[in-house]
Amino acid sequence: MTRPLTAAQRRLIEAADPATGRLKGTPAQLAALVKRGLAFRHPRPPHDHFLTPAGRRTREAEPEPAEPETPAATGVFAARVGGEEPLPGAGAARLREVRSAWEGMLELRRMTNPDGATDRPCGWERSHLVQAAALALEAAGHAPAVGDAEGGYRVRATPQPEAVAVHEPDGEALRACAATLERAGWQVGEYTEPRTRARYLLASPRRV
Asked: Which parts of the sequence are annotated with region: Disordered (predicted)?
C-alpha cells in the first residue's frame, strides 16, 4: 500500500503552477515527490521540477483520509494491459481516469521531448513500454482481455529492446489496435506466431 502524502508534500502539489505543473520546494522535498512518481526533474537547465500525470491526478483528487487508499486518492494509475480481473465499480469513473491519464501523458511528452512534440512517446514511455502501449489502447476505447477470456487485447513485454507484443484474437480488432498505436507515435508491424499461427503486433516507440 502506498504511504499517504505528508501535509507538506500535499501543500507543494497543491501550490504547483495550474498550467505547467511547475513545483517549488527544497531539494529534499522535490526529490521525495520524484521518488513517489509524482514529479519529474526537467532534463534541460534550469532543471525545474514539474508534476507528472500521477501528480496532477493527486492534486485534483479529494483527500479521503478515513478511507482505504485508492488510485484516485493516491495518484497511482495503471492502464489495463489485459488479463486482469474486472475492476470493481468500473464505468464512467474509469473512463474519466483513463482520459485524464492520457491527457497527462501528452503533457508529459510536451514537457520532456526536446522539441516539445506530442506525437511521439517520451522517455517515461520508453522505460514503461507495456504500460505506455496499454494506456494508448485503453484511452482510444479498445477493450482489454478480462481474466482468462479470449476476447480483448493483451500487451506483453518481449525480449527485444523497446518493443512490446500486442495480442488480440480478433483480426479486425488487432488491426484497429495497430492503427491506434501508430497514431500514438508507435512503429507497428504484424507478425505470425510460428507455433500457434496466431497473428500479433510488435510495437516500438517512434523516435522521429
From this structure: 41-72
Q: Distance (Å, rounded) from C-alpha 139 to C-alpha 77?
A: 13
Q: Which phi and psi (to 5°) does residue 70 adopt?
A: -130, 165
Distance from C-alpha of 198 to C-alpha of 172, rounded to nearest angstrom:
13
CA separation for the pair 183, 24 (Å, rounded): 35
Angle between helices 92-112 and 129-139 (to 10 degrees): 120
pTM above 0.85, yes or no: no
**In whole angstroms, what is the distance from residue 182 CA to residue 137 CA?**
11
- Residue carrying C-alpha cell 479486425: 172
Question: Model confidence over 63-83: pLDDT tens digits?
Answer: 533 233 333 333 447 889 999
**Torsional class of 47: left (φ above 0), alpha (ψ -120 to 50), beta (otherwise):** left
**Residue 124's CB: how many other CB atoms inside 10 A?**
17
User: b/e for 88-104, b at 16 or more Cβ within 10 A?
Assistant: eeeeeeeeebbebbbeb
How far apart, in whole angstroms, are the C-alpha atoms of residue 190 and residue 174? 9
At 175 the three-state DSSP class reads helix
Q: What is the DSSP letter of 198?
A: -
Domain ranges of the chain: 1-77, 78-208
